[in-house]
Specification:
This protein is mainly beta. The protein has 2 helices and 37 strands.
Length: 445
Amino acid sequence: MKFVNLFFSNNKEIAKSMRTILNICFFVCYLLSNAVAQKWVKVTPTFNPPGNYNTYHGVFVDERNGWWLTLFPGTILHTTNKGISWETQVDSCNAGIGGLVFIDSLHGWLQGQTLPDPKYEYFIQSTKDGGKSWNRYSSPIITCLTFFDSLVGFAGGENIYKTMDGGVTWDTMTIQSHRGAIGLYDIFFIGQHYGWAVGGGWLFDSGIILNSSDSGKTWQFNDTLTTVGTKVYFTNANHGYIVGSNPPVFYGIIKITNDGGKTWATNYLPGSWLNDIVFIDDSTGWAVGEYGYIWHTVDQGMNWTQVESSTKSDLYRIFFFDNGTAGYILGADSTILKYEKAVDVKEKQQTLVESFKIFQNYPNPFNSTTQIKFEIPVSGLVSLIIYNLLGKEVVMLLNEEKRQGAYTINWEGKDNYGRELGSGVYFYQLKAGSFHEVRKLIFLK
């Protein structure tokens, strides 16, 4: 009997151990499968007027509409077709432009500084019509912005400032135990009550975390770290993240709190410093940084997997829409990366093709939306453009790297600026490598 009990006892322990091992294997496979499944493709943007742009910070407010800034002389670019083509809104404002924020497709702000002639002057520019026109106001030294609505916003620099009139005037907020010029790089609010600000001094090996619990009226030093924070992001009042670097080594740092900032844990990531972080739910997040680094987590930031970016350019901002199914990354050297939702094995097998093909759009004629399907047998740069009867481009639907497979593109009868076109005959052209083919379609309103 003792032997039998011992036998079953040992088997229970073995079974328990096996379950543990299987659970660990399942979790590792889950992480690996998610890491492999995430796919970012490089978009080849076109500019009007053409040129090489020293792109800097930018913003997308939805899947179609975005703004992009360049450094000196300060060009403002705008897209309405998912980053494929960009129109110049402001040719030059003689300024090195910093951050940019839009709360919707109409209301936006940017901060910048003029060239030192004879001295630097800092300013805010605001728009109420999607960037068609901008108003300019003098401002304190500001390096980051956030707005609640068209009137109320906060800015950070050597202090924290608040505006109640859309950026025309700014009041200095109270920072308890002020320690002199602090240099802030980001401000983030959870709702309108709890706020966080991060920054620090790159040359003095000092990072700063501030927080507010009274809608930004007063701010307290939460912690002083060696980490210089570039971005702060909270998914709720307790769970938050800070990304940045530890000078002078400059490796990537992600700080995590689960108790509202009382304590912070640190993740050290290979490569250079990090510039932005975003979470699409409580568990799934992304971080981007210098030299094309993209990191991905599916377990609330406990573990991070590097994802292929196909670029060595510095990456500055990351955005997601439609519950995480659509995403963009903006970086230097006119770099745009677009997120493509993972395709399962069955779909991949179905999309194996052996030749270039473009099919007749369906329905045709159409009066609201039509689908254009095509197939490519090899990976490469693919463009799909709609022309009018005069041969003039009206909209570029696609201009990016695509893997071998079958694709479907929807068109709603709108041009590059989101304006609905008139009824008539149009042509669509597919270009992929040496292949190109043109087909006719009819739009009826």
